[in-house]
Amino acid sequence: MPISYDKLWKLLIDKKMNRTELKDAAGLSSNVIAKMGKCETISMDSMLKICKALGCDISDMVEVLSDDNGGEGDMK
Questions:
Q1: Are 35 and 41 in contact (CB under 8 A)?
Q2: DSSP secondary structure letters along the chain
Q3: CA–CA separation, 66 vs 64, rounded Å?
Q4: What span, in angstroms and rounded, lies between the C-alpha atoms of 16 and 22?
Q5: C-alpha span between 29 and 27 (Å, rounded)
Q6: Could you tell me the pLDDT band of residue 1, with boundaries at 50, 70 and 90?
Q7: How far apart are CA 76 and CA 73, in angstroms?
Q8: Which CATH class is domain 3-64?
């Protein structure tokens, strides 16, 4: 299932952080940041590290996209 980290990138802009600062604050590897840049899945452990570093919830940073149109989707 396709995912998008656009919410995370917008959150970083709001917090005036860049990806390198996120990597350092959350204790992530460059590989994890690169995977997110390519909209690939990352481990739940990495997601939780980001949430802790930014004081946010997983739903504040990732969105599941619908398979059929590749656009933003709802899981309702």
A1: yes
A2: --EE-HHHHHHHHHTT--HHHHHHHHT--HHHHHHHHTT----HHHHHHHHHHHT--GGGT-EEBPTTTSSB----
A3: 7
A4: 10
A5: 7
A6: confident
A7: 9
A8: mainly alpha
- What are the extents of the domains in the chain? 3-64
User: What's the confidence (pLDDT) of residue 35?
Assistant: 97
User: Which pTM value belongs to this model?
Assistant: 0.81
Residue 30 CA, chain-centre distance (Å), reads: 14
Rama region for 54: left / alpha / beta (φ>0; ψ in -120 to 50; rest)? alpha
16: left (phi over 0), alpha (psi -120 to 50) or beta: left
Q: What is the pLDDT of residues 27-70, one digit of tens each?
A: 999 999 999 999 999 999 999 999 999 999 999 999 999 876 54
